[in-house]
Amino acid sequence: MTKNSPHKISAKQVAIGYLSRRDYAEVELRIKLQGKHYAQDEIDSAIADCLERGWLNDHRYALLIVRNSIAKGLGELRLQAELRNKGVSEAIINQVFDECDVDWFEHAKDVALRKFGISDADTLKEKAKRYRFMEYRGFDSDQISYALNISDDE
C-alpha cells in the first residue's frame, strides 16, 4: 500500500475476497487489483501468495470456463478467443483443449438441433441465418457444414 493510498484493506485481502466469490485468471485478477490503485509490488505479492496457496490457478479457471461454455453451446473457436481475452496463456489453452474429450462436430450438431430442431432450412436466407448463428457460437466451417447437413455442392 502506498503512503497516499486510502486503502485499509490489503491487496491480498481484496484478492481473497474476489477469489472467494468465483475463479479468476491471473491477468484478470491483476487488472482488478490495479483498478483499486494498489502498488505494483503489493499486487505482485498478493498474486504470488494466491498462486502459491492454489487459490489462483489459470488451468483450473480455463477448465471451468470451457466446461460451462460447452454446456451453453459454444464452440471451440469462441472458447479459445474468450480465454485469450481473459489473459490465459496459449500453452494452458492448448492443454485444456487436449484434456477435454469433446467431439466438436457432434457438439455442433447438438447445438444446431437444439436451436433449429429437425427441420431443414428451406430458403437460402434461412441457411445463411443458421450458418451465421453457428459461426457466432464459435464453430468452424467444417463443423457447421456437418451440423447443418450442408454438402459441398450446395
From TrEMBL:
<dbReference type="GO" id="GO:0006282">
    <property type="term" value="P:regulation of DNA repair"/>
</dbReference>
<comment type="similarity">
    <text>Belongs to the RecX family.</text>
</comment>
<feature type="domain" description="RecX third three-helical">
    <location>
        <begin position="102"/>
        <end position="148"/>
    </location>
</feature>
<dbReference type="InterPro" id="IPR036388">
    <property type="entry name" value="WH-like_DNA-bd_sf"/>
</dbReference>
<dbReference type="InterPro" id="IPR053926">
    <property type="entry name" value="RecX_HTH_1st"/>
</dbReference>
<comment type="function">
    <text>Modulates RecA activity.</text>
</comment>
<dbReference type="InterPro" id="IPR003783">
    <property type="entry name" value="Regulatory_RecX"/>
</dbReference>
<dbReference type="GO" id="GO:0005737">
    <property type="term" value="C:cytoplasm"/>
</dbReference>
<feature type="domain" description="RecX second three-helical">
    <location>
        <begin position="57"/>
        <end position="96"/>
    </location>
</feature>
<protein>
    <recommendedName>
        <fullName>Regulatory protein RecX</fullName>
    </recommendedName>
</protein>
<dbReference type="Pfam" id="PF21981">
    <property type="entry name" value="RecX_HTH3"/>
</dbReference>
<dbReference type="Pfam" id="PF21982">
    <property type="entry name" value="RecX_HTH1"/>
</dbReference>
<feature type="domain" description="RecX first three-helical">
    <location>
        <begin position="11"/>
        <end position="49"/>
    </location>
</feature>
<dbReference type="InterPro" id="IPR053924">
    <property type="entry name" value="RecX_HTH_2nd"/>
</dbReference>
<dbReference type="Pfam" id="PF02631">
    <property type="entry name" value="RecX_HTH2"/>
</dbReference>
<keyword id="KW-0963">Cytoplasm</keyword>
<dbReference type="InterPro" id="IPR053925">
    <property type="entry name" value="RecX_HTH_3rd"/>
</dbReference>
